[in-house]
Each structure stands twice: as C-alpha cells, then as structure tokens.
Amino acid sequence: MGAVSAPATQQLVVRRWEPDDVPALHEAVLDSIEHLRPWMPWIAKEPLGLEERRQLVAGWIASWETGDRLCGLFVGDRVVGCAGLHDRIGPTGREIGYWVRAGETGRGYATAAARTLTDMAFTMPGIARVEIQHDVANVASGRVPAKLGFTPVREVPHVPEAPGESGIRRVWRVERDRWWARRADLG
Ligand SMILES: CC(C)(COP(=O)(O)OP(=O)(O)OC[C@H]1O[C@@H](n2cnc3c(N)ncnc32)[C@H](O)[C@@H]1OP(=O)(O)O)[C@@H](O)C(=O)NCCC(=O)NCCS
Hints:
By secondary structure, the protein is of the alpha+beta class. It has one domain (2-186): Aminopeptidase (3-Layer(aba) Sandwich). Helices cover 31% and strands 29% of the residues. It contains 5 helices and 8 strands. The chain has an 8-stranded mixed beta sheet with strand order 1-2-3-4-5-6-8-7, with helices on both faces. A hairpin with a 7-residue loop joins strand 1 and strand 2 (12-16). Helix 1 (22-36) crosses helix 2 (50-63). The longest helix is centred in the N-terminal third of the chain and has 15 residues, at 22-36. Mean pLDDT is 95; it is low at 5-9. Bound molecules: coenzyme A. Coenzyme A binds at residues 36, 39-40, 98-100, 105-111, 134, 138-141, 143-144, 147.
C-alpha cells in the first residue's frame, strides 16, 4: 500500500484504517449520505454517532488479518473514500467494494484504490481471483473494473437493497495470472 497515482489527482494514499482516522471518516460519511444513498445499503442506518463509528472502525481494524480488509482513501488528512477487500466469495477469492466522498468523484480515486487492492489480494497466499460486483444501473461503478481489465462474467437477479438499484447485479472478475500479465499497462 502507500501512495498510488491516479490520473489528474493530487496524491492519493490507500491504507488501512487507524483509530485516529475516525473523526475524518465520520465527516466524510456525513457529507456523503445523499450521494451514497442510491447505491450503498448500509447508508440507511446513517447518520451514526461518533461513538458508533469508533466501534465500527474497531471492528474493521480487528478483521484485517482474518477477514475483510477495509482501507481509507486519503488526500492529505482528508478522507476521500473507502475501499475494501471482502472475504465473502470463498477461500480462493476476494471481492472489492468502494465508495468515494461526495464532490470527489471523477478523479480516478475508485479505480486507483481498486487497483491497489487487487495487487494486495494477489499477494495473499491462495487467492486466485478478484471480483467486483455492482447493480447494472450503477454505471459509474461498472467503469472501475472495466478500466482495470476485469471481465464481466455473469449477471444475476438480486433483491434491490438500495433505492437506485435495478435488481440485476453484474459480476466482474480477474484471475491472478491475467492480472500480473497486464499489470504494468495499468500504471
Ligand atoms: C462509483 C464510484 C465509487 C466511482 O468513484 P470515482 O472515484 O468517481 O471513480 P473513477 O473516477 O475511478 O471512475 C469513474 C468512472 O465512471 C464514469 N462515470 C461517472 N458517473 C457516470 C455516470 N453517471 N454514467 C456513466 N459513467 C459515469 C466516469 O466518467 C469514470 O469513467 P472514465 O474514467 O471512463 O471517464 C463513486 O461514483 C461513488 O462513490 N458512488 C456511490 C457509491 C457507489 O456506487 N459505490 C459502488 C457500489 S457497487
């Protein structure tokens, strides 16, 4: 992890959350509730209080070695988003999720974060594939795996969980060998 470049951006840093990041994360989420509402089911529980946010982040930090790996996206001290490597598609795969703060989209942050997390996944023993899933109505989200060379592998119906969702989920995948074969082209 560390600094990764994103086109036309200030330097973006993708790193694991630390307890001291909670106030900056809290501000970023509170700033972004209506922006995230169409696509992120968990936003229905917002606004959380600061203490609830602390507990949430403590859980993320605790899960790093054995489960999900949640990272903050930072430009300086400012939280511009969150991205995670989720342990929910079986022992040989990881799924990437992401959101970017309101007003910070369109700067390549989600793509840069997903690139960093895919690198991370394929340095973990036993991980053979990485997937990104999104509702087909979420066109911006689908641009991220497309730009990184993931392949769309299937579309599956699902019960919409957030107001913007259509009920069809698209799954994109990249395998380890293919990722490293074209990784140098991705910057
Ligand atoms: C989806 C999301 C994470 C993308 O973050 P981002 O930092 O703007 O992503 P990037 O800048 O790396 O790439 C976004 C791409 O989507 C495109 N895009 C943005 N809005 C779009 C729209 N309404 N229709 C079509 N394309 C769109 C951008 O042009 C860009 O593609 P390009 O580089 O080919 O021009 C951000 O929009 C977001 O946080 N959305 C709400 C939460 C969410 O949907 N999370 C994903 C759930 S699956």
